[in-house]
Amino acid sequence: MGKRGAQFRLSDGVGCEACHGGSSEWIASHRAVGGTHAANVAKGMIPLDRPQVKAAVCLDCHFGSADGGQFVSHRMMAAGHPRISFELDLFSTLQQHHNEDADYAARKGRTNNVRVWAVGQAMALDRALSLYANPQYGTEGAFPEFYFYDCHSCHRRIEDSETFKPTALDNPGRNIAPGTPPSTTKI
């Protein structure tokens, strides 16, 4: 987040620093024998072992944020952005980068999955409500931003597969962008 060294390559995809923050101050102690998690955090490492911190970091990219252009609108989804869904414990389990062995448990403790789930749910609700209350994201003309609704409210079939066939097709008689309600544009 923020600092990019000489070896940074966007094509490498999401790396450690995307979530843990710029590592220039803490990477040496992170790798060092006898280095501690507390020392790394003191040097700027984002402490993702704390569910509230982890949820805030994950929500920015996987749910949306009012900061830094991270709000995914219905138009972006119509252009092919994956559906927005968030469940912190499931994400954490699927993306686990560290084994919770005895050494990990001694340094950081064991993960309480129920707590991670509950914190993730509460913070996702808080994020959704804060985005919904933000006038910049709450409406598009007379319509609410469709991002806030379940996709199946309007679309009968949505799936992430190679055989997907869209449920909406371009209408040459109505020149509007995909994902735009017809009455918000001038015809």
Structural commentary:
There is one protein chain. By secondary structure, this protein is mostly helical. Helix content is 39%, strand content 2%. The protein has nine helices and two strands; from the N terminus they run αααααααααββ. Helix 4 packs across helix 8 (113-133). The protein is elongated, with a radius of gyration of 21 Å. The model has no long low-confidence stretch (mean pLDDT 78).
Q: What structural class do you assign from the helix and strand content?
A: mainly alpha
- Per DSSP, what share of the residues sits in E-state strands of 2 or more residues? under 5%
**Ends: how far apart?**
43 Å
Widest sheet, order of strands: 1-2
Helix content: 25-40%
Q: Report low-confidence residues grouped into runs of 5 or more.
A: none
Number of strands: 2
> Could you give the order of the helices and strands?
HHHHHHHHHEE
Tell me about the largest β-sheet. 2 strands, antiparallel
How many helix segments?
A: 9
Instruction: Report the C-alpha radius of gyration, rounded.
Output: 21 Å
Taking all residues together, what is the mean pLDDT? 78
**Shape summary:** elongated
